Amino acid sequence: xxxxxxxxxxxxxxxxxxxxxxxSYGLATVLALPDVSWAIFSALFVIQSSIGGxxxxxxxxxxxxxxxxxxxxxxIFVIGIGEWRTVLALVAGVGAMALVAGARPxxxxxLVTVAILILAPGTQVVEDALLKVAAIALGSAAGALASVLVxxxxxxxxxxxxxxxxxxxxxxxxxxxMAKMLARDAPDLRAVHASISDELTLAGKMSxxxxxxxxxxxxxxxxxxxxxxxxxxxxTLALVDRLSGEPLPxxxxxxxxxxxxxxxxxxxxxxxxxxxxxxxxxxPPPADRFHDRICAIAAAMDxxxxxxxxxxxxxxxxxxxxxxxxxxSHSVNELLALLxxxx
Length: 343
What we know:
Strand content: under 5%
Order of helices and strands: HHHHHHHHEEHHHH
Oligomer: single chain
Helix content: over 70%
Number of strands: 2
């Protein structure tokens, strides 16, 4: 089963979650914490799709819980509890914590802590608050530990895998656009665009979770830089898709069909191999054949213009094809500049 498949990720998430719950329950029981459920709930909700995401969620949950506990204790001791005082303390505590969560959403779990501690403070107010925070910290730590030790998935590696599939999808999209431009039956490419969009969305999610930098040559790069460049390539292909809305005129197809098909096949193969290289952070394949095929299109375009005979509208359409390949070449070169160089 491929490591990046949806089924595998579902299995990984399930196994990690069960491991985190078992660890948090065991530790809470051994330490005789009175609120075992708090530890288990924290373990349940910190597990993310990568190590970096889980560790960040665990740290944010602990910080939010501690801040919420401090606010709850401040409201209890300043305002008091019982009848209208409980309502006032609840309004003040939740309101203050909501302001913090509005500015820093990662601390939003503090809203739960402040509300529960004010509504059910227990007989030993400070001790009860500290025990709840300890249980939350224990559960969060158990989740982070499970993410690191059980079927770990590093965010930057996952981002690279999603970007690799997006790049390969761009190759397939470019080939389909060229087929659309040369044929009279225009296929619907929305599914191809949707697939690339999904991969880029997942890559963005993993990129935000990443705490590590990628070493590319002598420079340090983040997955977000690769993400932005792959997105630019996709946007370029969206333009190509629009330009391919109408097939080329017969005279243009006669001269351009063969070089365009050759370039499309080469581009699809080249981008698939480039995606594989990106997933492994290895040097991409040589781009000479890819650029040679684009030059062949430019040569055929020059011949077409020398022959003449095109209407103004037909000439503009064929110019759009040439412009599209220039933009694709430029976008691909910018992407290659972010990958390791050939030794």
